[in-house]
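Comment on both lines for my students:
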Amino acid sequence: MEYKRLSKEQFEALHQEFATFLAAYSIDKKEWDLLKVQHLDRADSLLNEFSDLVWNDVLNKNLFVEHFNPKHLFLFECLEEQMNLILVKTEDNLIDLTSEEGINWLEDNMHSDSVSVFRSQKKYKNRKQDIFDLIEKGGRLSEGVFYKSIASFLSKTS
């Protein structure tokens, strides 16, 4: 297995795609139910294979990954050749950037001395694995709303 197996919730959300995947192996629902009971190794192998297909499909796209903690926003733009990072940091110990109030505070205080913003770029060693590692460390895929908003803000102030 190249990545990790999808969660039960992820499989449920992708049940139609999984059924199509099984159909490519000429496996219908009745046969799948039988495999899960009588041939668990084969069922596990198919679950792993489907999981890797899904991860490969997701990781091949240009996407955004964000990781929030109370004092930092790590915002990644994952392009084909490189990853761009915007790091937002607050020194204000009363602010929690994982809360709605913290994000609202940040919007109002981007120019404050207690907010620092850093940008960097990194070429990939292995694009898919580098992005997957971000997700494994707590990052989540996003539409890039925060990244685009802060990048726009930075372009207006520079």
About this structure: Strands lie at 63-69, 72-78, 82-90, 115-123, 140-142. The mean pLDDT is 93.
